[in-house]
Amino acid sequence: TQVAPGAVHVPGWLAADSQGELLDACREWARPPAGLRTVRTPGGGTMTARQVCLGRHWYPYGYARTVVDGDGAPVKPFPGWLGELGRRAVLETLGEPPEPYDIALINFYEAEARMGMHRDSDEKSDAPVVSLSLGDTCVFRFGNTGTRTRPYTDVELRSGDLFVFGGPSRLAYHGVPRVYAGTGPPELGLAGRLNITLRVSGL
Ligand code: MD3
Ligand code: FE
To answer: Which InterPro entries does the protein's record reference (predicted)?
Structure first.
């Protein structure tokens, strides 16, 4: 389903077994060193979704090779199989192959976690961002490129959903105002929600 130009939502793109394999990988990546961390914002606040990075470490507002606001460890490598998954996602939705992916940001949302409206502009490539969701259903809010404010399009993202953001949607404001606790597939065995985004750093 095309939500806006370049923004394509594919519900249930990942089969149940693939969701389980991706979750297992996320659990490994979440372990220290360079594991799951709380992101501190420049204003002194903290983000409610916790994060682990592969390839490069994201911090507001840039990328580093080590965990600059955590344990200082080198960032875990970005695996080739994850890049292939991203390439396939873009080929199937937008019909053109992207540049090779080299960064993954994995956000873990507990029931009360949110993500405010923001734009992702720290990548020096205009390649599409690939988003995969696991676990609890959330409300994903898609806004505009020029303003953080309404009008918004709210879309529910469920376990296994793919969302690709390319072209004019790449720099649109977006956020996650709500996670519905206990709505994920029971057989996945995940309390909360995980979102994996694949990006091209251009670095
Ligand atoms: C649109 N993540 O990691 S996924 C993020 O569910 C982020 O964790 C949310 O926003 C999450 O930056 C939303 C959908 C998403 C991800 C990246 C985008 C939408 C995007 C980048 C550009 C435009
Ligand atoms: Fe984002």
So the answer is: Alkb (IPR004574), AlkB-like (IPR027450), AlkB-like_sf (IPR037151), Oxoglu/Fe-dep_dioxygenase_dom (IPR005123)
Pocket of ligand 1 (CB under 6 A): 105, 107, 115, 120, 129, 131, 140, 163, 165, 169-170, 172, 174, 176, 195, 197
| Range(s) of the domain holding residue 66 | 46-118
Which ligand places an atom closest to the C-alpha of 136?
Answer: 1
ipTM of the complex: 0.96
184 lies in a domain? no
User: Is 134 part of any domain?
Assistant: no
Tens digits of per-residue pLDDT, 134-149?
A: 999 999 999 999 999 9
Cα of 91 to ligand 2 centre, how many Å? 21
Based on the structure, what is the number of domains in the chain?
1
